[in-house]
Protein backbone atom coordinates (compact mmCIF):
# COMPACT_ATOMS: atom_id res chain seq x y z
CA UNK A 1 0.00 0.00 0.00
CA UNK A 2 1.18 3.46 -0.74
CA UNK A 3 1.78 5.23 2.53
CA UNK A 4 1.51 8.64 0.89
CA UNK A 5 -2.26 8.69 0.68
CA UNK A 6 -3.40 10.68 3.68
CA UNK A 7 -5.35 13.84 2.79
CA UNK A 8 -2.38 15.84 4.05
CA UNK A 9 0.05 13.97 1.78
CA UNK A 10 -2.20 14.40 -1.24
CA UNK A 11 -2.63 18.09 -0.56
CA UNK A 12 1.10 18.59 -0.10
CA UNK A 13 1.90 16.82 -3.36
CA UNK A 14 -0.29 19.28 -5.28
CA UNK A 15 1.17 22.43 -3.82
CA UNK A 16 3.84 24.68 -5.29
CA UNK A 17 4.82 27.69 -3.21
CA UNK A 18 7.15 30.09 -4.96
CA UNK A 19 8.26 33.67 -5.51
CA UNK A 20 9.60 35.57 -8.49
CA UNK A 21 12.99 37.18 -8.16
CA UNK A 22 14.23 39.80 -10.60
CA UNK A 23 15.74 43.21 -11.09
CA UNK A 24 13.17 46.03 -11.40
CA UNK A 25 11.73 46.30 -14.92
CA UNK A 26 12.70 42.80 -15.97
CA UNK A 27 9.01 41.92 -16.16
CA UNK A 28 8.02 40.41 -12.82
CA UNK A 29 4.67 42.17 -12.68
CA UNK A 30 3.81 41.30 -16.27
CA UNK A 31 4.75 37.68 -15.71
CA UNK A 32 2.74 37.55 -12.49
CA UNK A 33 -0.32 38.78 -14.36
CA UNK A 34 0.10 36.18 -17.03
CA UNK A 35 0.58 33.37 -14.53
CA UNK A 36 -2.57 34.44 -12.75
CA UNK A 37 -4.44 34.48 -16.04
CA UNK A 38 -3.47 30.87 -16.62
CA UNK A 39 -4.79 30.06 -13.20
CA UNK A 40 -8.03 31.88 -13.94
CA UNK A 41 -7.38 33.97 -10.86
CA UNK A 42 -7.90 37.23 -12.70
CA UNK A 43 -10.05 38.07 -15.64
CA UNK A 44 -8.00 40.94 -16.88
CA UNK A 45 -4.27 41.26 -17.13
CA UNK A 46 -3.20 44.58 -15.69
CA UNK A 47 -5.04 44.08 -12.43
CA UNK A 48 -2.11 43.11 -10.26
CA UNK A 49 -0.36 46.38 -10.01
CA UNK A 50 -1.76 49.52 -11.52
CA UNK A 51 1.38 51.42 -12.21
CA UNK A 52 1.64 55.14 -12.42
CA UNK A 53 -1.87 56.41 -12.51
CA UNK A 54 -3.86 53.34 -13.54
CA UNK A 55 -6.91 52.09 -11.66
CA UNK A 56 -6.27 51.34 -8.02
CA UNK A 57 -6.07 47.69 -7.02
CA UNK A 58 -5.91 45.86 -3.75
CA UNK A 59 -2.17 45.68 -3.71
CA UNK A 60 -2.09 49.41 -4.24
CA UNK A 61 -3.64 50.23 -0.90
CA UNK A 62 -1.00 52.43 0.44
CA UNK A 63 -0.70 56.09 -0.48
CA UNK A 64 3.04 55.93 -0.78
CA UNK A 65 2.85 53.07 -3.18
CA UNK A 66 0.40 54.91 -5.41
CA UNK A 67 2.51 58.02 -5.38
CA UNK A 68 5.68 56.31 -6.38
CA UNK A 69 4.30 53.56 -8.54
CA UNK A 70 6.18 50.89 -6.67
CA UNK A 71 4.97 47.82 -4.93
CA UNK A 72 5.72 48.30 -1.24
CA UNK A 73 3.81 45.41 0.19
CA UNK A 74 4.38 41.72 0.04
CA UNK A 75 1.31 39.66 -0.56
CA UNK A 76 0.33 36.22 -1.66
CA UNK A 77 -1.75 35.04 -4.57
CA UNK A 78 -3.20 31.59 -4.71
CA UNK A 79 -4.40 29.99 -7.92
CA UNK A 80 -5.08 26.57 -9.31
CA UNK A 81 -3.73 25.30 -12.59
CA UNK A 82 -4.24 21.74 -13.77
CA UNK A 83 -3.93 19.50 -10.74
CA UNK A 84 -1.85 21.96 -8.81
CA UNK A 85 -2.38 24.70 -6.27
CA UNK A 86 0.12 27.52 -6.70
CA UNK A 87 0.93 29.98 -3.97
CA UNK A 88 2.81 32.89 -5.49
CA UNK A 89 4.37 35.11 -2.87
CA UNK A 90 4.88 38.59 -4.18
CA UNK A 91 7.95 40.51 -3.18
CA UNK A 92 8.46 44.26 -3.25
CA UNK A 93 10.39 45.39 -6.28
CA UNK A 94 12.16 48.27 -4.62
CA UNK A 95 15.43 47.40 -2.94
CA UNK A 96 14.63 49.59 0.04
CA UNK A 97 12.17 46.92 1.07
CA UNK A 98 14.59 44.07 0.68
CA UNK A 99 14.12 42.96 4.30
CA UNK A 100 10.55 42.11 3.44
CA UNK A 101 11.71 40.21 0.40
CA UNK A 102 14.29 38.21 2.33
CA UNK A 103 11.71 37.22 4.90
CA UNK A 104 9.28 36.21 2.17
CA UNK A 105 11.93 34.00 0.59
CA UNK A 106 12.07 31.98 3.82
CA UNK A 107 8.49 30.91 3.08
CA UNK A 108 8.92 29.55 -0.47
CA UNK A 109 10.04 26.19 -1.84
CA UNK A 110 11.12 27.44 -5.27
CA UNK A 111 11.68 30.65 -7.20
CA UNK A 112 11.35 31.86 -10.76
CA UNK A 113 14.25 34.08 -11.78
CA UNK A 114 13.23 36.55 -14.48
CA UNK A 115 16.02 37.96 -16.61
CA UNK A 116 15.73 40.68 -19.22
CA UNK A 117 17.13 39.12 -22.40
CA UNK A 118 18.91 42.32 -23.35
CA UNK A 119 20.44 42.92 -19.93
CA UNK A 120 21.26 39.56 -18.42
CA UNK A 121 21.96 39.21 -14.71
CA UNK A 122 21.50 42.55 -12.97
CA UNK A 123 22.48 43.62 -9.48
CA UNK A 124 19.27 42.91 -7.64
CA UNK A 125 18.76 39.56 -9.30
CA UNK A 126 22.17 38.51 -8.09
CA UNK A 127 21.47 39.68 -4.55
CA UNK A 128 18.14 37.87 -4.37
CA UNK A 129 19.66 34.78 -5.90
CA UNK A 130 22.23 34.74 -3.11
CA UNK A 131 19.44 34.82 -0.55
CA UNK A 132 17.81 31.84 -2.29
CA UNK A 133 21.10 30.01 -2.34
CA UNK A 134 21.42 30.27 1.44
CA UNK A 135 18.49 27.87 1.61
CA UNK A 136 19.29 26.00 -1.63
CA UNK A 137 15.97 27.05 -3.12
CA UNK A 138 15.54 25.56 -6.60
CA UNK A 139 15.38 28.20 -9.33
CA UNK A 140 13.62 28.10 -12.68
CA UNK A 141 14.91 30.76 -15.07
CA UNK A 142 12.70 32.72 -17.44
CA UNK A 143 14.57 34.84 -19.98
CA UNK A 144 12.07 37.55 -20.83
CA UNK A 145 11.53 40.13 -23.58
CA UNK A 146 12.64 37.98 -26.49
CA UNK A 147 10.30 40.09 -28.62
CA UNK A 148 12.94 42.80 -28.32
CA UNK A 149 16.55 42.74 -29.39
CA UNK A 150 18.21 40.20 -27.13
CA UNK A 151 21.65 38.99 -26.29
CA UNK A 152 22.91 35.72 -27.67
CA UNK A 153 21.35 32.80 -25.71
CA UNK A 154 24.74 31.15 -25.12
CA UNK A 155 26.04 34.38 -23.77
CA UNK A 156 23.13 34.66 -21.33
CA UNK A 157 23.48 31.06 -20.15
CA UNK A 158 27.18 31.59 -19.70
CA UNK A 159 26.55 34.65 -17.60
CA UNK A 160 24.17 32.75 -15.32
CA UNK A 161 26.75 30.00 -14.89
CA UNK A 162 29.65 32.33 -14.24
CA UNK A 163 28.13 35.08 -12.12
CA UNK A 164 25.84 32.86 -10.06
CA UNK A 165 27.86 29.65 -10.10
CA UNK A 166 24.67 27.89 -11.14
CA UNK A 167 24.56 25.22 -13.85
CA UNK A 168 22.05 25.82 -16.62
CA UNK A 169 19.93 23.43 -18.60
CA UNK A 170 18.01 25.11 -21.42
CA UNK A 171 14.60 23.53 -21.91
CA UNK A 172 13.46 25.73 -24.76
CA UNK A 173 15.55 27.68 -27.25
CA UNK A 174 14.42 30.96 -28.82
CA UNK A 175 13.76 31.01 -32.55
CA UNK A 176 15.08 34.46 -33.41
CA UNK A 177 14.60 37.56 -31.32
CA UNK A 178 13.25 41.07 -31.66
CA UNK A 179 11.37 41.54 -34.92
CA UNK A 180 12.17 38.03 -36.07
CA UNK A 181 11.16 36.29 -32.83
CA UNK A 182 9.02 33.44 -34.08
CA UNK A 183 8.68 31.17 -31.09
CA UNK A 184 10.58 28.55 -29.13
CA UNK A 185 11.94 25.12 -29.81
CA UNK A 186 11.83 22.50 -27.07
CA UNK A 187 15.28 20.96 -27.17
CA UNK A 188 14.28 17.58 -25.78
CA UNK A 189 11.00 16.81 -27.48
CA UNK A 190 11.73 18.94 -30.60
CA UNK A 191 8.46 20.73 -30.35
CA UNK A 192 8.01 24.16 -31.88
CA UNK A 193 5.70 26.69 -30.32
CA UNK A 194 4.77 29.79 -32.25
CA UNK A 195 4.39 33.23 -30.74
CA UNK A 196 0.72 34.13 -30.29
CA UNK A 197 -0.29 30.47 -30.67
CA UNK A 198 1.36 28.97 -27.68
CA UNK A 199 -1.33 26.38 -26.97
CA UNK A 200 -0.64 24.68 -30.29
CA UNK A 201 2.63 23.70 -31.95
CA UNK A 202 4.24 21.04 -34.07
CA UNK A 203 7.07 18.61 -33.82
CA UNK A 204 10.06 18.78 -36.16
CA UNK A 205 12.94 16.42 -36.86
CA UNK A 206 15.64 18.67 -35.42
CA UNK A 207 17.80 21.68 -36.21
CA UNK A 208 17.86 20.79 -39.93
CA UNK A 209 14.10 20.69 -40.38
CA UNK A 210 13.07 23.22 -43.07
CA UNK A 211 9.79 23.90 -41.25
CA UNK A 212 11.82 25.18 -38.35
CA UNK A 213 14.34 27.19 -40.37
CA UNK A 214 11.56 28.58 -42.54
CA UNK A 215 10.23 30.49 -39.54
CA UNK A 216 13.15 32.89 -39.76
CA UNK A 217 14.12 35.44 -42.41
CA UNK A 218 16.54 33.93 -44.86
CA UNK A 219 19.61 35.84 -43.73
CA UNK A 220 19.25 34.55 -40.14
CA UNK A 221 18.84 30.87 -40.98
CA UNK A 222 22.45 29.76 -41.21
CA UNK A 223 23.46 31.38 -37.95
CA UNK A 224 20.41 29.96 -36.19
CA UNK A 225 21.08 26.49 -37.57
CA UNK A 226 24.61 26.58 -36.30
CA UNK A 227 23.57 27.90 -32.90
CA UNK A 228 20.83 25.32 -32.43
CA UNK A 229 23.08 22.47 -33.55
CA UNK A 230 25.58 23.50 -30.92
CA UNK A 231 22.86 23.73 -28.28
CA UNK A 232 21.58 20.28 -29.18
CA UNK A 233 25.07 18.79 -29.18
CA UNK A 234 25.76 20.17 -25.72
CA UNK A 235 22.43 19.04 -24.33
CA UNK A 236 22.37 16.69 -21.37
CA UNK A 237 19.39 14.96 -19.77
CA UNK A 238 17.68 17.23 -17.28
CA UNK A 239 18.99 16.41 -13.81
CA UNK A 240 16.02 16.81 -11.48
CA UNK A 241 18.04 16.15 -8.34
CA UNK A 242 20.60 18.82 -9.19
CA UNK A 243 17.73 21.27 -9.77
CA UNK A 244 16.01 20.42 -6.52
CA UNK A 245 19.26 20.79 -4.63
CA UNK A 246 19.65 24.28 -6.06
CA UNK A 247 22.68 23.54 -8.28
CA UNK A 248 21.08 23.65 -11.70
CA UNK A 249 18.43 25.82 -13.28
CA UNK A 250 16.17 24.87 -16.20
CA UNK A 251 15.95 27.83 -18.58
CA UNK A 252 12.97 29.02 -20.60
CA UNK A 253 12.83 31.82 -23.14
CA UNK A 254 9.77 33.92 -23.84
CA UNK A 255 7.92 37.17 -23.66
CA UNK A 256 5.71 37.87 -20.69
CA UNK A 257 4.18 40.81 -22.50
CA UNK A 258 3.12 38.64 -25.42
CA UNK A 259 2.11 35.88 -23.01
CA UNK A 260 4.54 33.59 -24.71
CA UNK A 261 6.58 30.91 -22.98
CA UNK A 262 4.56 31.35 -19.82
CA UNK A 263 2.64 28.12 -20.31
CA UNK A 264 5.88 26.13 -20.57
CA UNK A 265 7.11 27.87 -17.46
CA UNK A 266 4.06 27.06 -15.38
CA UNK A 267 4.02 23.48 -16.66
CA UNK A 268 7.63 23.18 -15.57
CA UNK A 269 6.80 24.53 -12.13
CA UNK A 270 4.10 21.87 -11.83
CA UNK A 271 6.38 19.10 -13.08
CA UNK A 272 9.77 19.95 -11.58
CA UNK A 273 9.40 22.37 -8.67
CA UNK A 274 9.29 20.57 -5.36
CA UNK A 275 6.20 20.28 -3.23
CA UNK A 276 6.47 21.86 0.24
CA UNK A 277 9.55 20.62 1.99
CA UNK A 278 10.33 19.98 5.62
CA UNK A 279 10.96 23.05 7.76
CA UNK A 280 13.65 23.27 10.38
CA UNK A 281 12.49 24.07 13.90
CA UNK A 282 14.86 24.66 16.79
CA UNK A 283 14.41 21.12 18.07
CA UNK A 284 13.60 19.05 14.99
CA UNK A 285 12.73 18.97 11.30
CA UNK A 286 8.99 19.26 10.73
CA UNK A 287 7.70 17.22 7.79
CA UNK A 288 4.86 18.71 5.74
CA UNK A 289 2.80 15.52 5.94
CA UNK A 290 2.72 15.40 9.72
CA UNK A 291 -0.81 15.32 11.10
CA UNK A 292 -0.56 18.26 13.44
CA UNK A 293 -0.61 21.82 12.18
CA UNK A 294 2.43 24.05 12.48
CA UNK A 295 3.29 27.32 10.76
CA UNK A 296 5.30 30.51 11.03
CA UNK A 297 4.55 34.16 10.41
CA UNK A 298 6.84 35.85 7.88
CA UNK A 299 4.92 39.01 7.14
CA UNK A 300 2.53 41.36 8.85
CA UNK A 301 0.46 43.74 6.85
CA UNK A 302 -1.65 46.46 8.42
CA UNK A 303 -4.56 48.36 6.95
CA UNK A 304 -4.91 46.31 3.81
CA UNK A 305 -8.37 47.64 3.51
CA UNK A 306 -8.74 51.20 4.80
CA UNK A 307 -12.43 50.54 5.53
CA UNK A 308 -11.54 47.82 8.02
CA UNK A 309 -8.58 48.74 10.15
CA UNK A 310 -7.09 45.31 10.38
CA UNK A 311 -3.75 43.70 10.76
CA UNK A 312 -3.07 40.50 8.88
CA UNK A 313 -0.30 38.09 9.77
CA UNK A 314 0.78 35.98 6.81
CA UNK A 315 1.60 32.50 7.97
CA UNK A 316 3.13 29.71 5.98
CA UNK A 317 1.58 26.43 7.03
CA UNK A 318 4.44 23.96 7.51
CA UNK A 319 2.57 20.78 8.40
CA UNK A 320 -0.81 19.23 9.08
CA UNK A 321 -4.15 20.78 8.32
CA UNK A 322 -5.26 24.20 9.40
CA UNK A 323 -9.00 24.46 9.80
CA UNK A 324 -11.16 27.45 10.39
CA UNK A 325 -11.93 27.86 14.07
CA UNK A 326 -9.12 25.64 15.30
CA UNK A 327 -7.25 26.43 18.48
CA UNK A 328 -3.57 27.01 18.01
CA UNK A 329 -0.77 27.66 20.43
CA UNK A 330 1.43 30.72 20.06
CA UNK A 331 4.92 29.46 20.84
CA UNK A 332 6.34 32.78 22.03
CA UNK A 333 3.80 33.20 24.83
CA UNK A 334 2.46 29.67 25.21
CA UNK A 335 -1.04 31.13 24.93
CA UNK A 336 -3.89 29.65 22.92
CA UNK A 337 -5.27 31.48 19.92
CA UNK A 338 -8.42 30.66 17.98
CA UNK A 339 -8.02 30.88 14.22
CA UNK A 340 -11.57 32.03 13.60
CA UNK A 341 -11.15 33.69 10.23
CA UNK A 342 -8.03 32.55 8.38
CA UNK A 343 -8.00 33.90 4.85
CA UNK A 344 -6.77 32.99 1.40
CA UNK A 345 -5.72 35.72 -0.97
CA UNK A 346 -6.29 35.90 -4.68
CA UNK A 347 -5.30 38.58 -7.13
CA UNK A 348 -8.37 40.68 -6.58
CA UNK A 349 -10.03 39.12 -3.61
CA UNK A 350 -9.74 37.23 -0.40
CA UNK A 351 -11.92 34.56 1.11
CA UNK A 352 -12.20 32.62 4.34
CA UNK A 353 -9.92 29.60 4.35
CA UNK A 354 -11.92 26.61 5.57
CA UNK A 355 -8.81 24.49 5.50
CA UNK A 356 -5.19 24.89 4.47
CA UNK A 357 -2.23 22.55 4.16
CA UNK A 358 1.54 22.70 4.22
CA UNK A 359 2.82 25.19 1.66
CA UNK A 360 -0.29 27.33 1.85
CA UNK A 361 -0.10 30.86 3.10
CA UNK A 362 -3.01 32.08 5.15
CA UNK A 363 -3.71 35.54 6.42
CA UNK A 364 -4.65 35.63 10.09
CA UNK A 365 -6.45 38.80 11.16
CA UNK A 366 -5.38 39.92 14.62
CA UNK A 367 -5.03 42.98 16.77
CA UNK A 368 -1.35 42.85 17.49
CA UNK A 369 -1.10 39.35 18.98
CA UNK A 370 1.13 38.05 16.21
CA UNK A 371 4.58 39.23 15.25
CA UNK A 372 7.02 38.39 12.50
CA UNK A 373 8.77 35.12 13.25
CA UNK A 374 5.99 33.74 15.45
CA UNK A 375 5.33 30.02 15.41
CA UNK A 376 1.82 28.58 15.76
CA UNK A 377 1.28 24.90 16.52
CA UNK A 378 -1.50 22.55 17.48
CA UNK A 379 -0.06 22.31 20.97
CA UNK A 380 3.56 21.26 20.55
CA UNK A 381 6.18 23.49 22.08
CA UNK A 382 8.14 24.15 18.91
CA UNK A 383 9.77 27.19 17.32
CA UNK A 384 10.72 27.60 13.67
CA UNK A 385 14.01 29.24 13.01
CA UNK A 386 15.18 31.32 10.17
CA UNK A 387 12.97 34.36 9.62
CA UNK A 388 15.84 36.79 9.77
CA UNK A 389 16.29 40.34 10.92
CA UNK A 390 19.06 42.31 9.24
CA UNK A 391 21.27 44.88 10.87
CA UNK A 392 19.97 48.32 9.89
CA UNK A 393 22.15 50.46 7.71
CA UNK A 394 20.45 53.75 8.51
CA UNK A 395 19.72 54.85 12.06
CA UNK A 396 17.66 57.83 13.11
CA UNK A 397 16.32 59.28 16.31
CA UNK A 398 12.69 60.23 16.26
CA UNK A 399 11.75 63.81 17.00
CA UNK A 400 8.22 64.14 18.24
CA UNK A 401 6.69 67.55 17.68
CA UNK A 402 4.24 67.08 20.56
CA UNK A 403 6.08 65.75 23.65
CA UNK A 404 2.77 64.95 25.35
CA UNK A 405 2.42 62.04 22.97
CA UNK A 406 5.58 60.21 24.01
CA UNK A 407 3.68 57.24 25.42
CA UNK A 408 1.57 56.89 22.31
CA UNK A 409 4.72 57.02 20.20
CA UNK A 410 6.28 54.24 22.21
CA UNK A 411 3.26 52.00 21.63
CA UNK A 412 3.13 52.88 17.95
CA UNK A 413 6.83 52.13 17.48
CA UNK A 414 6.44 48.80 19.23
CA UNK A 415 3.70 47.91 16.75
CA UNK A 416 5.72 49.04 13.76
CA UNK A 417 8.68 46.98 14.95
CA UNK A 418 6.47 43.91 15.43
CA UNK A 419 5.23 44.33 11.88
CA UNK A 420 8.79 44.59 10.60
CA UNK A 421 8.29 48.09 9.16
CA UNK A 422 11.36 49.31 11.03
CA UNK A 423 13.51 48.09 13.87
CA UNK A 424 13.34 49.99 17.12
CA UNK A 425 16.17 50.20 19.61
CA UNK A 426 15.96 51.61 23.14
CA UNK A 427 19.33 53.00 24.21
CA UNK A 428 20.27 51.74 27.69
CA UNK A 429 21.35 55.24 28.72
CA UNK A 430 17.69 56.29 28.62
CA UNK A 431 17.94 58.58 25.59
CA UNK A 432 15.18 58.62 22.95
CA UNK A 433 14.36 55.59 20.79
CA UNK A 434 16.40 54.95 17.68
CA UNK A 435 14.82 53.48 14.58
CA UNK A 436 16.90 51.44 12.19
CA UNK A 437 16.14 50.56 8.60
CA UNK A 438 17.87 48.85 5.72
CA UNK A 439 16.38 51.12 3.03
CA UNK A 440 15.56 54.82 3.33
CA UNK A 441 12.04 54.44 1.97
CA UNK A 442 11.14 52.48 5.10
CA UNK A 443 11.54 55.75 7.00
CA UNK A 444 9.02 57.42 4.69
CA UNK A 445 6.59 54.58 5.28
CA UNK A 446 7.06 54.88 9.05
CA UNK A 447 6.50 58.62 9.01
CA UNK A 448 3.41 58.36 6.86
CA UNK A 449 1.89 55.58 8.92
CA UNK A 450 2.57 57.25 12.26
CA UNK A 451 0.77 60.31 10.96
CA UNK A 452 -2.10 58.52 9.23
CA UNK A 453 -2.79 55.77 11.74
CA UNK A 454 -1.76 57.28 15.06
CA UNK A 455 -2.00 61.03 14.43
CA UNK A 456 1.65 61.40 15.37
CA UNK A 457 3.60 63.96 13.36
CA UNK A 458 7.29 63.16 13.62
CA UNK A 459 10.63 64.10 12.16
CA UNK A 460 13.90 62.25 12.04
CA UNK A 461 17.18 63.41 13.49
CA UNK A 462 20.53 61.96 12.56
CA UNK A 463 22.42 59.90 15.13
CA UNK A 464 26.14 59.59 15.39
CA UNK A 465 25.85 55.86 14.70
CA UNK A 466 26.20 54.25 11.31
CA UNK A 467 26.56 50.57 12.23
CA UNK A 468 24.53 48.30 14.45
CA UNK A 469 25.36 44.73 15.50
CA UNK A 470 23.76 42.18 17.78
CA UNK A 471 26.18 41.14 20.49
CA UNK A 472 26.50 37.99 22.55
CA UNK A 473 29.13 36.01 24.38
CA UNK A 474 29.68 32.45 25.55
CA UNK A 475 31.88 33.63 28.36
CA UNK A 476 30.02 34.25 31.61
CA UNK A 477 29.89 37.89 32.61
CA UNK A 478 31.64 39.10 29.48
CA UNK A 479 28.55 40.61 27.87
CA UNK A 480 27.66 42.56 31.02
CA UNK A 481 31.22 43.84 31.20
CA UNK A 482 31.08 44.99 27.60
CA UNK A 483 27.70 46.64 28.06
CA UNK A 484 28.85 48.48 31.18
CA UNK A 485 31.94 49.73 29.42
CA UNK A 486 29.91 51.10 26.47
CA UNK A 487 26.59 52.26 27.91
CA UNK A 488 26.23 55.18 25.52
CA UNK A 489 26.54 52.84 22.51
CA UNK A 490 24.27 50.00 23.62
CA UNK A 491 20.58 49.63 22.95
CA UNK A 492 17.98 46.89 23.30
CA UNK A 493 15.92 45.57 20.41
CA UNK A 494 12.28 44.50 20.45
CA UNK A 495 13.15 41.27 22.27
CA UNK A 496 15.35 43.20 24.71
CA UNK A 497 18.46 41.73 23.17
CA UNK A 498 21.48 44.03 23.14
CA UNK A 499 23.03 45.70 20.13
CA UNK A 500 26.23 47.63 19.89
CA UNK A 501 26.06 50.79 17.81
CA UNK A 502 29.28 52.03 16.27
CA UNK A 503 30.06 55.34 14.63
CA UNK A 504 32.39 53.90 12.00
CA UNK A 505 33.55 50.56 10.66
CA UNK A 506 36.91 51.35 12.15
CA UNK A 507 35.56 51.76 15.67
CA UNK A 508 33.65 48.49 15.33
CA UNK A 509 36.75 46.55 14.36
CA UNK A 510 38.75 48.30 17.07
CA UNK A 511 36.25 47.07 19.70
CA UNK A 512 36.23 43.60 18.17
CA UNK A 513 39.98 43.38 18.59
CA UNK A 514 39.82 44.53 22.15
CA UNK A 515 36.92 42.21 23.06
CA UNK A 516 37.59 38.89 21.30
CA UNK A 517 35.00 37.04 23.40
CA UNK A 518 32.16 39.25 22.24
CA UNK A 519 30.43 37.88 19.17
CA UNK A 520 28.95 40.45 16.80
CA UNK A 521 26.37 39.58 14.19
CA UNK A 522 24.64 41.49 11.42
CA UNK A 523 21.76 39.02 11.14
CA UNK A 524 19.41 37.86 13.81
CA UNK A 525 16.84 35.09 13.53
CA UNK A 526 13.57 35.99 15.13
CA UNK A 527 12.81 33.86 18.15
P1 LIG B 1 8.84 44.65 -13.00
O1 LIG B 1 9.39 45.96 -12.58
O2 LIG B 1 9.87 43.57 -13.01
O3 LIG B 1 7.58 44.26 -12.29
O4 LIG B 1 8.51 44.81 -14.57
P2 LIG B 1 7.15 45.05 -15.32
O5 LIG B 1 6.39 43.78 -15.48
O6 LIG B 1 6.41 46.18 -14.72
O7 LIG B 1 7.73 45.41 -16.76
C1 LIG B 1 8.57 46.52 -16.97
C2 LIG B 1 8.35 47.05 -18.39
O8 LIG B 1 8.75 46.05 -19.32
C3 LIG B 1 6.89 47.35 -18.69
O9 LIG B 1 6.84 48.47 -19.51
C4 LIG B 1 6.43 46.11 -19.42
O10 LIG B 1 5.37 46.35 -20.29
C5 LIG B 1 7.68 45.71 -20.17
N1 LIG B 1 7.72 44.28 -20.43
C6 LIG B 1 7.52 43.25 -19.58
N2 LIG B 1 7.65 42.07 -20.21
C7 LIG B 1 7.94 42.35 -21.49
C8 LIG B 1 8.19 41.55 -22.65
O11 LIG B 1 8.17 40.33 -22.63
N3 LIG B 1 8.48 42.23 -23.79
C9 LIG B 1 8.51 43.58 -23.87
N4 LIG B 1 8.80 44.13 -25.03
N5 LIG B 1 8.29 44.35 -22.82
C10 LIG B 1 8.00 43.76 -21.64
UniProtKB/TrEMBL annotation:
Positions that bind GTP: 22-29, 90-94, 144-147
Keywords of this entry: Cytoplasm, GTP-binding, Nucleotide-binding, Protein biosynthesis
Transmembrane annotation, as ranges: none
Principal location listed in the UniProt entry: cytoplasm
Coiled-coil stretches: none
Domain spans labelled Tr-type G: 13-277
Subcellular location, record wording: Cytoplasm
InterPro entries: EF-G-like_DII, EFG_III/V, G_TR_CS, P-loop_NTPase, PrfC, RF3_C, RF3_dom_3_sf, RF3_GTP-bd
Leader sequence residues: none
GO cellular component: cytosol
Single annotated GO MF: GTP binding
CDD domains reported for this sequence: RF3, RF3_II
GO biological process, one term: regulation of translational termination
SUPFAM superfamilies in UniProt: EF-G C-terminal domain-like, P-loop containing nucleoside triphosphate hydrolases, Translation proteins
Organism domain of life: Bacteria
Pfam families for the chain: EF-G_D2, GTP_EFTU, RF3_C
Biological role stated in the UniProt entry: Increases the formation of ribosomal termination complexes and stimulates activities of RF-1 and RF-2. It binds guanine nucleotides and has strong preference for UGA stop codons. It may interact directly with the ribosome. The stimulation of RF-1 and RF-2 is significantly reduced by GTP and GDP, but not by GMP.
Xref: NCBIfam families: prfC, PRK00741.1, small_GTP
Family to which this protein belongs: Belongs to the TRAFAC class translation factor GTPase superfamily. Classic translation factor GTPase family. PrfC subfamily.
Full protein name: Peptide chain release factor 3
Protein's organism: Camelimonas lactis
Gene from which the chain derives: prfC
Amino acid sequence: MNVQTSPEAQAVERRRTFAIISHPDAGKTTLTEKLLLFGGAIQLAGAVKAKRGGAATRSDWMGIEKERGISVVTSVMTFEYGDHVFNLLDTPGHEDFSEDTYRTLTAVDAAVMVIDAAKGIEARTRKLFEVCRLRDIPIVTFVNKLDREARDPFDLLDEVEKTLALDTSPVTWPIGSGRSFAGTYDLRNRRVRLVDKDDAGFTVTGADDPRLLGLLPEHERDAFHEELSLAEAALEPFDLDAFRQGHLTPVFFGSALRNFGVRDLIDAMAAFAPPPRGQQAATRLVEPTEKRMTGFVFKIQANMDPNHRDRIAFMRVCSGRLTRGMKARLARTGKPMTLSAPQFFFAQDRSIAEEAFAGDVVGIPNHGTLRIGDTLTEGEDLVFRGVPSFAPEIMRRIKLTDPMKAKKLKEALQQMAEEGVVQVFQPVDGSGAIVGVVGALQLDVLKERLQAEYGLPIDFEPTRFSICRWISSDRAGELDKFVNAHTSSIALDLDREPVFMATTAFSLSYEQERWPDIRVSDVKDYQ
